[in-house]
Design brief:
GO terms for molecular function: nicotinate-nucleotide diphosphorylase (carboxylating) activity. Pathway: Cofactor biosynthesis; NAD(+) biosynthesis; nicotinate D-ribonucleotide from quinolinate: step 1/1. Keywords: Glycosyltransferase, Transferase. It catalyses: nicotinate beta-D-ribonucleotide + CO2 + diphosphate = quinolinate + 5-phospho-alpha-D-ribose 1-diphosphate + 2 H(+). This is Putative pyrophosphorylase ModD. The structure is a single chain. The chain contains ten helices and 13 strands. With 280 residues, the chain is α/β, with parallel strands linked by helices. Strands 7-6-12-11-10-9-8 form a seven-stranded parallel beta sheet. It has a four-stranded antiparallel beta sheet with strand order 3-5-1-13, covered by helices on one side. A two-stranded antiparallel ribbon has the order 2-4. Helix 8 links the parallel strand 9 and strand 10. Helix 3 runs antiparallel to helix 4 and helix 8 runs parallel beside helix 9. The two termini are 34 Å apart.
Length: 280
């Protein structure tokens, strides 16, 4: 994952507009100290490299660290670094915020991946574009650390046709009539169409599309629908989406879809991480 220096500096500048007033007025800024990050729960690491880059910009020396994607147990210390108290305190909260949110996403992602693959070892878990604006680099890094992949990184990447697009053509019959032209316009791209029911799926499955995304179709209906679509075109990529989370992902994985698209990994409790800063 490429995250540029401007982004790293923006993270730091958001919290340290000018000075750390508390450390300054206490007169402890030039004391040497050590900072340690320790997990209070089992989790998957993410955001470590970005924190180390923040340390580097503040002259903090990393003594020990574990990379993003590492699975650690409660009580494990995964970052130890040394530097001046003034710099350690500037790095403290922004680093903790990055780690707690990123590790939370990575850990939730791994739980989803593990649950889905316990039912269907070949299924892919992909995350949607519904992340909070301005956080895409970190959240994509975190879902990859947890074993998933991005569904779409942006509108320019893939062709995914929603009902909101179809509305400008009248209906799915109108869409079916221009699939050939879409193929000509973007011959190197796959065409995925989102459908909400059997009528839409059956109408469009026989065209020259590459995949269907089923939105909020109940598990019981989706299982039979997947079977019918595969009978029409066994080469189609089939994706389940809409309201899929830890409580129901195993059921959706059992429907024989190829992938599950979810936003649930972005929302939830941050990881619980303890930070200590001591005089060295």
């Amino acid at each position: 994952m490429y995250i540029n220096d401007e982004t790293i500096e923006r993270f730091l500048k958001e919290d340290v507009s000018y000075i750390d007033l508390t450390t300054l007025v206490m007169g402890i800024g030039n004391e040497k100290g050590q900072i340690c990050f320790t997990t209070r729960e089992d989790m998957v690491l993410s955001g470590v490299e970005e924190v180390l880059r923040i340390f580097g910009k503040l002259g903090i020396k990393t003594i020990q660290s574990l990379p993003s994607g590492t699975i650690i147990k409660s009580g494990e210390t995964f970052i130890i670094a040394e530097g001046l108290a003034s710099n350690l305190h500037m790095a403290w909260k922004v680093s903790l915020n990055i780690l707690e949110y990123c590790c939370g996403i990575a850990t939730r992602t791994k739980r989803l991946v593990d649950k889905a693959r316990s039912v269907n070892p070949k299924i892919s878990i992909v995350s949607t574009r519904k992340s909070f604006p301005g956080t895409k680099e970190l959240v994509i890094k975190s879902i990859i650390a947890g074993g998933a992949f991005p569904h779409r990184l942006g509108l320019s990447e893939t062709i995914l046709i929603f009902k909101q697009h179809v509305n400008f053509l009248g209906d799915f019959e109108g869409l079916s009539q221009i699939i050939g032209q879409i193929k000509i316009n973007a011959c190197e791209k796959k065409i995925i169409v989102e459908v909400e029911n059997e009528t839409e799926a059956m109408l469009i499955a026989g065209t020259d599309i590459d995949g269907l995304q089923f939105d909020k179709v109940p598990i019981s209906d989706l299982r039979s629908l997947v079977e019918k679509v595969r009978h029409i075109n066994p080469q189609l990529t089939l994706i389940a989406a809409g309201g899929i989370n830890e409580s129901n992902i195993e059921g959706y994985a059992s429907t024989d879809v190829d992938a599950i698209a979810t936003s649930s990994v972005y929302f939830g409790k941050p990881a619980d991480i303890k930070v200590t800063i001591d005089k060295y």
